Amino acid sequence: MGYFDTIPTKDKARAFLVSSSGFLLDGYDLSVISFAEPFIQKEMSLSSAQLGLVVSSSLIGMIIGSLLLGRLSDRVGRKKLMGIDLFFFLVFALTSALSQNFYELFSSRLLLGVGIGGDYPISSTLLSEVSPSRSRGQYLVGAVAMYWVGALLANVANLLFLPAGPYFWRYVFLLGSIISVPIVIARIKLLESPRWLVYAGKVKAEVPKELESKGAHGFLDIFKGTLLIVTVVTSAVWFLFDVAAYGIGLYYPYILKEFAFPSYYSVIYGTILISLASLAGYLVAVAVIDRWLGRRGVLLVGLGSMAFMLYLGAFTKIVGPVLVPYFMTFVALEQWAGAVTLFYPTELFPTSVRSTGQGFATAVSRVGAVLGVYYFPQMTKELGFSTSLEVFATTSLVAFLVSLWFVKETRKMQLEETSVGVREPLRKAT
């Protein structure tokens, strides 16, 4: 057992709850906009280009937030920023609900995304730094699973408020702002990461300060030596995953409405089933991430399953109600890859630049998400639904091949063992 594995259970549980809440709000927000988009387009008379910008606006904001707040987290600590990032969500979810035109809605959701984007590197970094090495994967996968709890809450909210008429989406946005209030308050009492305190020289520990930095101290250091390989690989795999995951994931309501069901209520029920299937997939991933398959196995199964399922859907030209069980199966395995791509960088970067590296990888992944979200409707219109699935299958396959070659195993290892320094050799994948 390492020095940092002695953190009290109550502190680890609190860190898990407040860190995972950011992913919950992200899942809530993106699920809300994916269902509300046709209603917003009609109400505000948006062009196709404007609608694409509205849908992807929070993802664009996440690019900015993850870079800025990720780096700032390594400079001033995790705790100081944990409440600030979601305060953005609280305020701009409210202004989104009150928006009257494209410019107000786009800017509100862009700034909302800045907060969520900043929360990704801060929350995942903090949680990885306080989780025990023997079960760190379970903590991190469990936190990422909260995204789909948020998606489920959003679908239930859509179901409850849909009878209110075409303006229902405003109430659902407002509810998101209300949900974030207790989360922001809870984060005020969160303890600082002990690893960051050691690196910053604020406390003395058995672990030397130099072991927490390994020669990396600034933003440019993640592009030097061996860390450059880590940065490129983690960012590339996450980018390729997000192209497919968000390109399809934000359009489940659209796909079901266009190719399966005429009723919006049937669409909501279908998306609820997809959310439940994803949570079921996470339960299995939690069971195997630290025991049998490890990070490498879970990632490869997830990416391989994505490629297989998407090629299958493309070649069989799948349509109709069978799309629901098809996407239930797809998402249950897809999220195995989603969980690992999100937290894996936090295990490879040293404490001094852990949030910086995670923030950069997040930003690159959101670029992939924006591309997938923005171009999916156009691909579907110009190339057809089946061909669009084939394109996303190919990006998943490339991510699988990159991971097969470069990804190493990190389960049950201390972060001081898994993290890579600027000048040390990159350990081979096992």
Automatic annotation (TrEMBL):
Primary localization: membrane
Record-linked InterPro entries: MFS_dom (IPR020846), MFS_sugar_transport-like (IPR005828), MFS_trans_sf (IPR036259), Sugar/inositol_transpt (IPR003663), Sugar_transporter_CS (IPR005829)
SUPFAM superfamilies in alphabetical order: MFS general substrate transporter
A GO CC annotation given for this chain: plasma membrane
Keyword Ligase annotated: no
Keyword Transmembrane helix: yes
Keywords, sorted A to Z: Membrane, Transmembrane, Transmembrane helix
Protein's cellular compartments: Membrane
Chain segments annotated as transmembrane: 49-69, 81-98, 139-162, 168-186, 227-252, 264-285, 297-316, 322-344, 388-407
GO molecular function: carboxylic acid transmembrane transporter activity
Record-annotated Major facilitator superfamily (MFS) profile domain positions: 15-411
Membrane-topology annotation of the record: Multi-pass membrane protein
Organism superkingdom: Archaea
Family matches, as PANTHER family: CARBOXYLIC ACID TRANSPORTER PROTEIN HOMOLOG
Protein name (database record): MFS transporter
Species assigned in the record: Candidatus Aramenus sulfurataquae
